[in-house]
């Protein structure tokens, strides 16, 4: 058995706020930069295209209809031309890409999912995942996903799985990936996540929360965890602050997300990037995942499968199913299980 070793790039970067086309251009530029620097995998943040809807934490929903419309207009579809451009760039650069995006659908102009795709170095989609449950105020924007993307992809870099933000808190979701032999876990987060008014209550410590969750999953699974959080740039901050006199104060005092690589012992193997925008690089050597399994192998000898059993439904949700002559027709909705790009 061989154990791959490779360099990964974690994109601690901001989108071009609510502009899908320019954000795709920026993403492709970053992919080329990462490839030039020897990276074989690049991980982008949660809903990088075209933005994380942090405005839901800053104003009541009755004031945010215009932002929701703008976000909906800049969603992309999983088989659409924007991801096709990213996939073609991945093929040209010979780099694997994990991309977070706001996913739309032709079925509904207002239905948006928090989605992520893993694209191979040959430009093919290996996995398409939708966040199972939006967290707190995120429910104002995103529909709940399904279990179809709880998949570990076998690649030349190893067995790769991914979860989005708060999903990394869900032990059953995490075990679902571990039980498929996950060796490299991709975790994506927003740039900032206000939970309280910092003037009256201690805020959610996003940095500490990420380190706890990423470290726990790495330690339990004896795997590498590559964390990419977004970056709140001045353009997005000022635009949101201009909408409400309290918004800027809350944003400025709310803890930022971090990007970091965690090793199989549960501790960081890279710098922690938080305050600056850029690419963070980390070296991954899967041979380091083997020895720790002697202590705790949760999907092997350190479990009792005669006692514990987990059943996961990976059916893809559909708004409608058609029947003709008493049998199901082939499903031809935009959310087909096997993705091909449309130009």
TrEMBL record:
This is Nitrilase. InterPro entries: C-N_Hydrolase, C-N_Hydrolase_sf, Nitrilases_CHs. Residues 321-343 are annotated as: Disordered. Keywords: Hydrolase. It is an enzyme of class 3 (hydrolase). It comes from the Bacteria. PANTHER family: CN HYDROLASE DOMAIN-CONTAINING PROTEIN (PTHR46044:SF2), NITRILASE (PTHR46044). Residues 6-286 form the CN hydrolase domain. Its EC number is 3.5.5.1. One of its GO terms (molecular function) is nitrilase activity. Gene3D superfamilies: Carbon-nitrogen hydrolase (3.60.110.10). It comes from Gimesia panareensis. Belongs to the carbon-nitrogen hydrolase superfamily. Nitrilase family.
């Amino acid at each position: 058995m061989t154990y791959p070793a490779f360099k990964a790039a974690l994109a601690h970067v901001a989108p071009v706020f609510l502009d899908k086309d320019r954000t795709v251009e920026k993403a492709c530029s970053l992919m080329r930069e990462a490839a030039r620097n020897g990276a074989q995998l690049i991980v982008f943040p949660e809903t990088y295209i075209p933005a994380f809807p942090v405005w839901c934490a800053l104003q009541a929903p009755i004031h945010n209809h215009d932002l929701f419309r703008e976000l909906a207009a800049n969603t992309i579809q999983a088989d659409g031309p924007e991801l096709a451009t990213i996939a073609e760039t991945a093929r040209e650069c010979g780099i694997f890409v994990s991309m977070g995006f706001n996913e739309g659908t032709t079925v509904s102009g207002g239905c948006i999912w928090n989605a992520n795709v893993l694209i191979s170095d040959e430009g093919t989609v290996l996995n398409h995942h939708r966040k199972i449950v939006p967290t707190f105020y995120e429910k104002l924007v995103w529909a709940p996903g399904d279990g179809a993307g709880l998949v570990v992809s076998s690649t030349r870099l190893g067995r790769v799985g991914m979860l989005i933000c708060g999903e990394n808190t869900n032990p059953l979701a995490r075990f679902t990936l571990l039980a498929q032999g996950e060796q490299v876990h991709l975790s994506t987060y927003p740039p900032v996540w206000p939970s309280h008014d910092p003037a009256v209550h201690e805020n959610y410590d996003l940095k500490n929360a990420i380190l706890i969750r990423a470290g726990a999953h790495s330690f339990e699974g004896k795997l590498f965890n590559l964390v990419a959080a977004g970056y709140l740039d001045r353009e997005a901050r000022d635009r949101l602050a201009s909408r409400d006199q309290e918004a800027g104060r809350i944003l400025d005092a709310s803890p930022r997300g971090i990007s970091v690589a965690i090793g199989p012992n549960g501790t960081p193997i890279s710098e922690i990037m938080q305050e600056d925008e850029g690419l963070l690089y980390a070296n991954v050597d899967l041979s380091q995942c083997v020895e720790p399994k002697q202590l705790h192998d949760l999907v092997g000898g350190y479990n009792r499968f005669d006692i514990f059993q987990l059943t996961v439904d990976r059916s893809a949700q559909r708004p409608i199913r058609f029947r003709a002559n008493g049998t199901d027709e082939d499903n031809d909705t935009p959310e087909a299980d096997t993705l091909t790009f449309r130009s």
